[in-house]
Amino acid sequence: MPSFLRRPRAIVRFLRWYWAVLLFVGEIGLYYWHINSCNWPTSPTADSTHVAIIADPQIVDHYSYGQTGLLLRLVEFYTDIYMRKSYRLLQDIQQPSVIINLGDLMDGGREWADDDWLPEYQRYRSIFTARYPMRVYEMAGNHDIGIGNTVVQGALERFHKTVGPTNQVIELGGHQIVLLDTLTLESDSPEVSSASNKLVEWLAKQNDEHKPRLLFTHVPMWRPNNTLCGPLRQSLPWLRNRRGYQFRDQLFQNTTTYLLERIKPLAVFSGDDHDTCIVEHQVPGTTDKATEYTIGAFGWASGVPIASYALLTLYPEGFMIQNCFLPYQLGIYKTYVLSFVLSFVLLAHACSYRRYQGLKAWRGCDRWLSVGGLWRHWLISRYKKPEDGSIGGPEEEGEGEGAIRLTLLPIFQGNNSAETVAAVHNNGYRRQKLWRLLSGLFPSVVWAIRDIALVATPFYISFILFFYI
Prior knowledge:
Elements: H1 8-37, E1 49-54, H2 62-65, H3 69-94, E2 98-101, H4 114-127, E3 135-138, H5 142-145, H6 153-162, E4 168-172, E5 175-179, H7 182-185, H8 190-205, E6 213-217, E7 243-244, E8 247-248, H9 253-263, E9 267-270, E10 277-282, E11 289-294, E12 308-315, E13 318-325, H10 329-357, H11 363-369, H12 374-380, H13 417-439, H14 441-448, H15 450-465
């Protein structure tokens, strides 16, 4: 056995550094590495525009999972800090000229009254803050305003007033960027759908003189059932076509045909599904095809293991796109849990070894193992038949209340009755010792990691506060 594993003090020193490095890697390093390793697609010309595309941040609230109180606050904090880190480093490292958010800013946005919605929007804005001069366009999602005939008129007007218009046409990198509100477009109410319909018809009249068009929509376009999404997909290999309260996985088929025919986009960018998908659509009346890129969700609690975003490079002759992945947050937390267990096992092994060998114990082991003497009993005790030939298991020393005595009960008959009674009592003794071990395990762990936690906790807090400065 390596001598290092026999010295609790050396293990504690090692674990202090181990946890400091682990927390730095998990809270900062992996974010830097993932974002820095995904590069802008290189354009063939120097005249290019860089656009970062994110989708479905959908900040968690009590509409998300039905949580309340402290649990809700914890979920909100850890989902918020993930997006805060990612969005900040995306700006610092990639420095895009434009950021487009494809919608679903909040999870329960359409359900909130104005007095409740405003604090949630301020929370959203504190996460998604522009650190440099850049253009940011935020589209509406079905979680923000509803969809189709269930669009919430008050939520739509509030979005227009506070966030911005839901329909826009902008010029970027030699392309015409169409941010289309397809949520209201599918409403049967002319009052709700008129603005989106008018924009589509205006675009149709410009078909002969417009620059290449890129269409942005929150909800993906219709496609035949079981159309494969490509190798970057993390969940089902195709995009489902479900309908439900305030959501649908795809636009209606007639809406999709209408948009492709009237707008004739070079490509389509969508969100809502929370996963990556790439499909091709035939543009009616032409031999052209429009590729649709569905961008994965930006948050880690969206039902897809790994969050993602996209980097889009625009240049006059065309565009290039790169899908990028963010850190696997659940994997980071699993690593923390496994490291905690291994830390405890290392300390338990070292302290128990010194006791078993009769070596001078480290004072931390003395205080830790004094909680009932649990590890000493469990690791070095032996179950032997007593020397005097009596039947029964080992007895605890002393005559006090905690002493264990085994007594034969005259209820067994046959040649093996004495052995049977001894086995029963020995099993009971082992169960009692196991129960005592488990009942004292938590306070033992708390004491064993105290010195490590005193060092690791300030590191963890400082790594979190780094993204609030």
